[in-house]
Design goal:
The protein is an alpha+beta fold and about 900 residues long. It contains 26 helices and 33 strands. An eight-stranded mixed beta sheet has the order 6-5-9-3-2-12-15-14, with no helix packed on it. Helix 5 (about 385-420) crosses helix 6. The chain starts with 11 loop residues before the first strand and ends with a helix. Bound molecules: ligand BES and zinc ion.
Length: about 900
């Protein structure tokens, strides 16, 4: 039995890739399931080169028996050490049999086979991506080994009435002693990271689905009995996304059953195991009383994401983990398209760009920066990052934009056809898209290999005599750790020109008349673009729709941005102009300037009065960039000051709109009657929350009184949580009673309780720490449940800059202590929470020194897992 993997293990390099010497054509797996011990027998049908050593991965496995071609192996014919089993004597066509014992209930890392819930009532399940299968049996645990699976599960019927594995059902029956069995055959060869099983007492809901190809499919969602009624929304979302993938991509489901299972104990959001998706309950269960509007959207998005992997990830998988974005970036993009189609294109784009700036830009600007396709890693689980996912999706979006809808579809058809049943690379993807369109897309490969966010500088010059407008674009990517030299990238810049009245001008370039919007590509360090027959100095609208993941530097006057904010017909661009203007206004607040503050507040006050504006869009327009995003622009970050300035800016906004107007709008948005979940009602709640927050800045008593009533009368979680959060943050007298009520009311609902923890971990400023300490001693708090640990510690460390970054360093000390405890239970979660330290080098000196001390102390601890050690060492390097 090996305990922890070697922390000092050397990094793995993309350039060292070599195809496997041995493949496994098919496998028969047999599980004798038990909570404390499970025995796994495996028969591997091998193909390969007898001259190459046969090496199989295996972590913490107790080897009970081993045989080759039916003959038990002598002890001298195999060696098991450091997570690797080496076997002698295998030939092409050999069958290797092993029998191992593993311990699900003792598995707190939630990787491999583990127990969800209690020993008495819980169920068994697996998580194999990225390298969990080696915790279950000996196998070449790498994604380019594609295998046909036959899986037989055996267990005591009373304790494990439901037995599930990926693939189609292939028989079931009784065994002596109250035991039973079930078999599953997956006809599609797959990498072992897509293997899954589930066993226990579960309830189900079912729906029949017929694919466009005529296949009858059973859709089944499983959960523990008490929440099965909360699975219907996910079932609707599932049917919607299956239909959408047929219509938009021509992709059909390919098994007779599609199982989805909800668990409260899960490291990630959800997992796309072939035919047996497993979900963190947070992204599957939905119920009007306990689920917010944003969470409903998240359920729809995650259900779609995992389903879409059936093609982008499963049918076409990754050659190695460096290619992770090939499936994740592409699938995020597909989900973004789907969610835009189901809801609103502009609002979805706003949400995704805001996430990119909040999560990916800081990653790309700090010591953890890495390319969308990294060149090396130590612990692959640390590379499921915003860069691989979110920036990866932006790269697909750029390619899709370049090809146009029809060209992109042609390219995707080619990609799926040519790579079906294969483990592919980013090059394969670009080649398919390019060849189907007679285009060379290899210049875009540079985006995948280069870390750091490019700066795009834009300067316009108007020549009145020549009636000509010249736009000069240049690019520069700052050096990142280990990548000092940067090359120029192809940057598509979608643009339009506006006149002083806010009308879009026709664009005349190179003598050709074009539409009102065009895309120019900056594919070198700098270039000029000239527009003819322009009568007056125009206002350029650049990077429309966020056409490339870059940071734009354009010397806009506040009035220019205010014009775009009030006149651009596109909701996203309007929001974007407002964000840029808010940044200027933020700088004004610091210097006691007024121009940009007035422009921002004035424009928004005007929009506030516009009855035609979508309330959801208005809510987003009224929200300035967050504290994390604002900190990114600073040389020396003082999170307390950023918080204070941002509050001052919002107070100015609230004052400009006026307390009376805000209160009036709030009253108008308060609709009586039963909860409605349609888009209009959701948009109104979104605005209501924002207006309440603004009112709290100019008339706290009025806002608190409203929040108190809203809390008590709320028909659903969106309004209830918004009210609670305003009460808590403004330290209203009514907060205590509301918190106690919420705690009591939702005591049996872990997902609702997570929100209760998170709302309190978000109180800004110095008081947050004491609160976190108190909450840690709440009987419902535990480090063993990832959702709970994230709700309190993750929210505090990553979602509350002014609370976490106390000048005395007490926030850092607390987090470091908890990380050590968490790491001993669950290294993946500890490593993720630890990324909150990213960016400490840019803190002002006092906080920087405090963080440095805590981090060096943490790095020196010998017991850290490879996961946590890599992140701590990573953030420490400059
Ligand atoms: N394949 C991942 C889940 C995963 C990630 C497993 C890392 C093991 C290690 C899944 O498809 C995924 O991307 N899930 C996301 C949610 C998604 C909607 C972006 C997640 O879990 O955060
Ligand atoms: Zn995914």
């Amino acid at each position: 039995m090996s305990a922890r993997p070697d922390t000092s293990a050397a990094p793995i390099h993309l350039r060292d890739y070599a195809p496997p010497a041995w493949r496994v054509e098919s496998i028969e797996l047999n599980f004798e399931l038990g909570i404390d011990t499970t025995e796994v027998t495996a028969q591997l049908h091998l193909r390969g080169d007898a001259n190459a050593p046969l090496r199989l991965d295996g972590e913490g496995l107790e080897l009970l028996a081993i045989a080759l071609d039916g003959q038990p192996l002598e002890a001298s014919a195999w060696r098991y050490a450091d997570g690797m089993l080496e076997v002698e004597g295998a030939r092409d066509g050999s069958v290797l049999s092993t029998r191992v014992r593993i311990h699900p209930a003792a598995n707190t890392a939630l990787e491999g086979l583990y127990l969800s819930g209690s020993r008495e009532a819980g169920f068994l399940l697996t998580q194999c991506e990225a390298e969990g299968f080696r915790h279950i049996t000996f196998f070449p645990d790498r994604p380019d080994v594609l295998t046909r699976y036959t899986v037989t599960l055996q267990a005591e019927r009373a304790r494990f009435p439901v037995l599930l594995a990926g693939g189609n059902p292939d028989g079931a029956g009784e065994l002596p002693d109250g035991r039973h069995w079930a078999r599953f055959v997956d006809p599609h060869p797959k990498p072992c990271y897509l293997f899954a099983l589930v066993a226990g007492r579960l309830e189900k809901i079912e729906r029949d689905y017929r694919t466009g190809e005529g296949r009858a499919v059973k859709l089944v969602i499983w959960s523990e009995a008490n929440v099965i009624d909360s699975c219907h929304y996910a079932m609707d979302a599932l049917e919607r996304c299956i239909r959408w993938d047929e219509q938009v991509y021509g992709r059909y489901y390919d098994l007779d059953v599609f199982h989805v299972v909800a668990t409260h104990d899960f490291n990630m959001g959800a997992m796309e195991n072939k035919g047996l998706n497993i979900f963190n309950a947070k992204y599957l269960l939905a119920d009007p009383d306990t689920t917010t509007d944003d969470e409903y959207k998240a359920v729809e998005a995650v259900v779609a994401h995992e389903y879409f992997h059936n093609w982008s990830g499963n049918r076409v998988t990754c050659r190695d983990w460096f290619q992770l974005s090939l499936k994740e970036g592409l699938t995020v993009f597909r989900e973004q398209q789907f969610s835009a189609d189901m809801n609103s294109t502009a609002l979805k784009r706003i949400e995704d760009v805001a996430l990119l700036r909040r999560a990916q830009f800081p990653e790309d600007a700090g010591p953890l920066a890495h390319p969308v396709r990294p060149a090396e890693y130590r612990e692959i689980n640390n590379f499921y990052t915003a860069t691989v996912y979110e920036k990866g999706s932006e790269l697909v979006r750029m390619l899709a934009g370049k090809l146009g809808a029809d060209g992109f579809r042609r390219g995707m058809d080619r990609y799926f056809e040519r790579n079906d049943g294969r483990a592919a690379t980013i090059e394969d993807f670009l080649a398919a898209l390019g060849e189907a369109n007679d285009l060379d897309l290899t210049p875009y490969l540079a985006w995948y290999g280069q870390a750091g966010t490019p700066r795009l500088r834009a300067r316009g010059q108007f020549d009145a005599a020549a009636r000509r407008y010249t736009l000069s674009l240049s690019q520069h990517t700052p050096a990142t750790a280990g990548q000092p030299e940067k090359q120029s990238l192809p940057i598509p810049v979608k643009l339009a020109l506006f006149d002083r009245h806010g009308r879009m001008l026709p664009l005349r370039m190179d003598g050709q008349t074009e539409a009102h919007e065009t895309v120019v590509v900056l594919d070198q360090a700098e270039r000029e673009f000239t527009f003819e027959q322009v009568e007056h100095a125009p206002v350029p609208s650049l990077l429309r729709g966020f056409s490339a993941p870059v940071i734009l530097d354009c010397d806009y006057a506040p009035a220019d941005l205010a014009l775009l904010l009030t006149h651009d017909p596109d909701g996203f661009n309007r929001w974007e102009a407002g964000q840029q203007l808010a940044v200027l206004a933020f700088d004004d607040c610091r210097r006691d300037g007024q121009t940009a503050v007035r422009a921002w507040c004035g424009a928004l006050a005007q929009l506030f009065a516009d009855p035609a504006l979508d309330p959801a869009l208005l809510a987003d327009l009224l929200t300035p960039p967050g504290e994390v995003e604002l900190a990114e622009r600073e040389q020396e970050v003082d999170p307390a000051q950023i918080h204070a300035l941002r509050q001052r800016l919002q107070t100015q906004l609230a004052t400009t709109i006026g307390a009376a107007t805000l209160a009036q709008r709030l009253a108008a948005l308060d609709v009586a009657g039963p909860l409605r979940l349609d888009a209009v009602a959701k948009a109104q709640r979104r605005l209501k929350r924002r207006v309440l927050e603004l009112l709290a800045l100019v008339d706290a008593p009025a806002a608190q009184a409203h929040a108190d009533t809203q809390y008590r009368q709320a028909q659903g979680m969106t309004d209830r949580l918004a009210a609670l959060s305003v009460l808590v943050r403004t330290e209203a007298d009514a907060a205590t009673a509301a918190l106690a009520d919420f705690r009591r009311r939702h005591a049996d609902n872990p997902l609702a309780l997570d929100k209760w923890f998170a709302a309190q971990a978000q109180v800004p400023g110095e008081r947050a720490l004491e609160r976190v300490r108190t909450l840690e001693s709440d009987p419902a708090f535990t480090l063993k449940n990832p959702n709970r640990a994230r709700a309190l510690l993750g929210t505090f460390a990553s979602g509350n800059p002014s609370g976490f970054h106390r000048a005395d360093g007490a926030g850092y000390a607390l987090l470091a202590e908890r990380l050590v405890a968490l790491d001993a239970l669950n290294p993946q979660i500890a490593a993720r929470v630890a990324t909150a330290f990213n960016g400490w080098q840019r803190l002002e000196p006092v906080r920087r020194e405090a963080a440095r001390q805590v981090l060096t102390g943490l790095a020196a601890r010998p017991e850290l897992s490879r996961n946590l050690a890599e992140i701590v060492a990573g953030v420490l390097k400059s």
